[in-house]
Amino acid sequence: MTIKIYGPSASRASRALWIVHELGIPFEHIAVEMKDLKSPEYLKINPNGKVPTLVDGDFKLFESMAINLYLAEKHGKEGFFPASAEDRAICTQWSFWGMTEVEKSLLTVLIDMFMTPPDKKKPEAVAEALKALPKPFGVLNGALEGREYLLGTKFTVADLNLASICSWAKPIKYDFGPFPNVQAWLDRCLSRPAYKAARK
After folding, report:
1. Predicted model pTM
2. Number of domains, the chain
3. pLDDT tens by residue, the chain, 200 residues
4. Helix or strand or coil: residue 52?
5. Do 54 and 8 form a contact (C-beta atoms < 8 A)?
6. Which residue in 28, 81, 128, 192 has the most C-beta neighbors within 10 A?
């Protein structure tokens, strides 16, 4: 059965699109427009009126990280969704950490830079967001010391989920100079063919 992924590719739905390409899962992409998210039809699928949403048969799921962890567990090849409870917990840890420690700050800068009219820009909020990022990127830089990926030498759902968030640093041209391990890791993750396929 083909799963369905709802949401434009230039949204958090890109995370789910990346993982289905990564794992070779048959899928249908329904690029529902933002203006249609409050329609009665869509609200039956996701009462939050947000994207992404996954529909897998009778099973419906929202929240991008929950979707990706579900797909990784159900379809993941050996190692992509780790076998041990400890390593799976680390995948969850980095997925949640990215959303709580990094996502809001990157999104604040991205929206202000590309989606906000000149008269509505908030330089103070952007400055505050940029000021907040070195701390988490320092943590991540330390975690990646001496390793290619978050769990070692193998690319896992932890890397995909966190890199999907950190990818927002690219369009804003964030300077990873002080965090060379993060820069190398992110470039490694975003050079994957599945990431590029998800953005088409």
Report:
1. 0.95
2. 2
3. 799 999 988 889 999 999 999 999 999 999 998 888 999 999 999 999 999 999 999 999 999 999 999 999 999 888 899 999 999 999 999 999 999 999 999 999 999 989 888 889 998 999 999 999 999 999 999 999 999 999 999 999 999 999 999 999 999 999 999 999 999 999 999 999 999 999 87
4. coil
5. no
6. 81
Q: Hey, what amino acid is at 3?
A: I
Residues 94 and 70 in one domain: no
Label the pairing between strands 27-30 and 53-56. unpaired
If we measure between CA atoms, which residue out of 192, 98, 102 comes closest to residue 154?
Answer: 192
Do 53 and 30 share a structural domain?
yes
Task: Report which secondary-structure segment, H or E, holds 59.
Answer: strand 59-62
- Is residue 80 a part of any domain in this protein? no
- DSSP letter at 8 equals -
Instruction: Report the candidate in 66, 47, 60 with the shortest Cα–Cα distance to residue 4.
Output: 60
Same domain, 97 and 173: yes
Output the six-digit token pair for 11. 């949204």
| Within-domain flag for 197 | no
The span from the CA of 135 to the CA of 97, in Å, is 13
Ordered alpha helix ranges (H), 46-99: 64-75, 85-97
Distance CA 15, CA 194 (A): 11
